[in-house]
Write a sequence for this structure.
C-alpha cells in the first residue's frame, strides 16, 4: 500500500514559502517538551536488566499474554477497518445534518476514560444486565464478557476513532478530480473506487490502521472492565504488566519494553503520515 | 497567507513567548527547590524540613477497602484541625507501598495487610511501630437474588467465572487463603482478576461474574448492587489493618491522625461500617 505513495500530491509543493525561522524561546520550550517524553522512556530502559528481560520474555505467562495481545489487536484492527472506513467515507463525503454529531460520537472513545468505556460496553453487551447482551446470549449464545471476543470489542471501541480520524483526513485531502477523470475515461464506480480512491487513500489507511493497532495493543481500562482479566483468555499484555508489577517486576518490565518497542516502530514507520496527509 | 513582513506582530509574539519561557523556567526552578528542600524518604533522619510549618495538607495513603471509613474520619479530622486538608490516596496496599518506596510524598500509610507495612518498615520508610487499628473478614458477593445459587465457598468450584483480587493484592491473598482452607481449587481460566477490592466486586455488581470473594465491608458498602453470602468464621481469614506515619512526612499531624483512627471517633466509624476492632 505504501508503494503507491507516488499518487499522493507532493506535500512540499503546496507549501507557500519557508516562513520565518522558529524563535529560540520556542525551541527551548520544545526541547523541554521533548525531554518530558524522553525521560520516562529512558527511565524504563535504564531499569531493565537485559539478560533478565530475555529470560522473562520466555516465561509461559508472558508468552500467553503476548500471543493473546497480538491476536486480539489484529482482530480489532480488522474490525475497526471494516467498520471505520465506511464511517470515514460518510463523514468525508456525505452531506447531511448531524454529521458533526456523528463525528463527535465516533471520536468520543478518544477522550472518554477507557474504564468508563468498559462500563458503557457492559451496559450494552453485558450478559446479565446489558441492553442487548442478554438477547445476544439467548439467541446466538454469544458472551462477550470473559471472552476473547470481548477483548476484541473493547479494543475496537477505543482504537477505531484513530482509524476514522486518519482516513477521514485522507479522504478530505484527496483530490476528487482524479476520480472525476477516471469516470470520464469510462471507469465504473467500483473500478474508480478500487483503482483511484483506494490507491490515493492507501497511505492514510495504512497510517490509521497502524495507529489503531498500536492503540488496541496498549488497551487496559476498557478491557479489564468489560472483558475481565482471565489468564490466557482476556489477560492481554497491559493487564499482565499490571498484575506482574508486584510479583515479577522483571517480567512486567520486559512486557512494557515489548509494548514500547512496538509503539516506537509503528510511530517511526508512520513518520509524518498521520498529520502529513491532512495538509 | 501572510504576504508582508510580519515584523511587529512577530516581535510582540516573541516577547510573549519570552515571558512564557521565563515564567516556566521560574516555576520549574521553584519546583526543583521545593523538591530538594524535602528530604527523600529513607534518607538520614533529622534533615531540616523548611516548609513543614506552612504545610497544611496531610496526605494519607490507605487501602481501597478503607475508602468510606477514612473519608468520614478525614472529615472529622479537618473539622478538629482548622486549616488542615486531608488528601487521600486510595489504592491496593501493595501498590501504595511501592509508591511510598519510590518516594511518593505520603504522611500516613494504612494497609489492609501487615506484609505491605512490613515492606516499608524493612525499607526504613516507616520508623515507628505500626499500630493495628481494625480487622476485616472476607465474604462472598453474588448478584441480587443469587442466580448462581451460591451457598458457600465450595460452590465456587463449579460456578461460572469468579472474580478475585490480583494475587499480590492483600484481598487476593486473603481470598486464596479462604479457598485453601476450604480445599477449593478454581481453575485460572474461570478466575477474573480485579486490580483492587472495589473493581473485583464491580465484576459482580456490573459485570457477568457469578461471585467475588472480597472484604465483608466492601460487600456491605455496595448496598443493593450485590448480595452477601457469609463465610463461617472457621473457614474465614481475618485481615489485620496496620497504620503508621511515614518517615519524612509531617510527623506531628500524622501522629494526631493516627490517634484519631485508633481513638473512639475512628473506632466508632469503622465499627459502623462493619470492621471488627483490632
Amino acid at each position: 500500500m505504501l508503494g503507491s505513495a507516488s499518487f499522493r500530491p507532493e506535500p512540499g509543493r503546496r507549501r507557500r514559502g519557508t516562513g520565518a525561522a522558529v524563535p529560540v524561546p520556542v525551541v527551548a520550550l520544545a526541547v523541554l517538551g521533548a525531554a518530558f517524553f524522553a525521560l520516562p522512556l529512558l527511565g524504563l530502559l535504564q531499569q531493565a536488566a537485559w539478560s533478565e528481560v530475555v529470560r522473562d520474555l520466555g516465561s509461559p505467562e508472558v508468552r500467553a499474554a503476548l500471543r493473546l495481545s497480538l491476536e486480539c489487536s489484529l482482530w480489532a484492527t480488522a474490525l475497526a477497518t471494516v467498520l471505520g472506513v465506511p464511517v470515514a467515507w460518510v463523514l468525508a463525503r456525505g452531506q447531511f445534518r448531524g454529521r458533526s454529531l456523528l463525528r463527535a460520537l465516533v471520536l468520543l472513545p478518544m477522550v472518554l476514560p477507557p474504564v468508563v468505556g468498559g462500563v458503557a460496553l457492559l451496559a450494552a453487551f453485558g450478559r446479565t444486565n446489558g441492553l442487548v447482551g442478554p438477547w445476544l446470549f439467548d439467541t446466538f449464545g454469544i458472551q462477550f464478557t470473559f471472552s476473547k471476543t470481548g477483548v476484541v470489542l473493547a479494543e475496537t471501541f477505543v482504537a477505531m476513532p484513530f482509524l476514522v480520524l486518519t482516513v477521514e483526513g485522507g479522504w478530505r485531502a484527496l483530490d476528487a478530480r482524479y476520480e472525476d477523470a477516471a469516470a470520464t475515461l469510462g471507469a465504473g464506480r467500483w473500478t474508480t473506487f478500487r483503482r483511484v480512491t483506494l490507491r490515493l487513500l492507501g497511505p492514510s489507511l495504512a497510517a490509521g490502521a497502524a495507529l489503531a493497532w498500536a492503540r488496541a495493543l496498549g488497551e487496559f481500562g476498557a478491557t479489564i472492565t468489560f472483558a475481565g482479566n482471565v489468564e490466557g483468555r482476556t489477560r492481554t499484555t497491559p493487564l499482565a504488566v499490571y498484575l506482574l508489577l508486584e510479583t515479577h517486576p522483571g517480567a512486567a518490565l520486559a512486557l512494557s519494553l515489548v509494548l514500547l518497542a512496538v509503539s516506537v516502530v509503528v510511530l517511526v514507520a508512520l513518520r509524518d503520515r498521520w498529520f502529513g496527509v491532512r495538509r | 497567507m501572510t504576504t508582508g513582513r510580519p515584523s511587529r506582530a512577530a516581535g510582540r509574539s516573541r516577547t510573549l513567548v519570552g515571558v512564557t519561557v521565563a515564567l516556566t523556567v521560574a516555576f520549574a526552578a521553584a519546583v526543583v527547590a521545593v523538591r530538594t528542600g524535602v528530604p527523600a524518604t529513607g534518607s538520614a533522619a533529622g534533615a531540616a524540613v523548611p516548609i513543614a510549618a506552612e504545610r497544611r495538607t496531610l496526605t494519607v495513603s490507605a487501602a481501597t477497602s478503607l475508602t468510606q471509613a477514612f473519608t468520614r474520619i478525614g472529615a472529622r479530622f479537618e473539622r478538629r484541625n482548622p486549616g488542615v486538608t486531608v488528601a487521600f490516596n486510595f489504592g491496593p496496599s501493595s501498590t501504595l507501598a511501592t509508591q511510598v518506596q519510590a518516594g511518593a510524598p505520603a504522611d500516613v500509610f494504612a494497609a489492609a495487610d501487615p506484609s505491605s507495612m512490613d515492606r516499608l518498615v524493612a525499607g526504613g520508610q516507616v520508623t515507628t511501630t505500626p499500630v493495628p487499628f481494625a480487622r476485616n473478614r472476607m465474604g462472598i458477593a453474588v448478584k441480587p437474588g443469587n442466580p448462581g445459587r451460591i451457598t458457600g465457598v465450595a460452590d465456587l468450584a463449579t460456578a461460572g467465572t469468579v472474580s478475585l483480587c490480583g494475587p499480590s493484592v492483600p484481598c487476593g491473598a486473603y481470598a486464596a487463603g479462604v479457598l485453601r482452607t476450604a480445599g477449593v481449587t478454581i481453575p485460572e481460566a474461570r478466575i477474573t482478576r480485579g486490580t483492587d477490592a472495589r473493581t473485583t466486586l464491580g465484576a459482580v455488581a456490573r459485570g457477568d461474574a457469578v461471585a467475588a470473594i472480597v472484604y465483608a465491608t466492601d460487600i456491605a458498602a455496595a448496598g443493593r448492587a450485590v448480595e452477601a453470602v457469609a463465610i463461617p468464621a472457621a473457614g474465614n481469614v481475618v485481615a489485620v489493618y496496620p497504620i503508621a506515619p511515614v518517615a519524612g512526612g509531617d510527623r506531628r499531624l500524622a501522629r494526631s491522625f493516627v490517634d484519631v483512627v485508633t481513638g473512639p471517633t475512628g473506632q466508632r466509624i469503622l465499627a459502623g461500617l462493619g470492621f471488627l476492632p483490632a
Summary: Residues 1-10 of chain A have pLDDT under 50 and may be disordered. Chain A has one domain: 57-276. The domain at 57-276 of chain A is CATH 1.10.3720.10 (MetI-like fold). The CA atoms of residues 36 and 222 of chain A lie 27 Å apart.
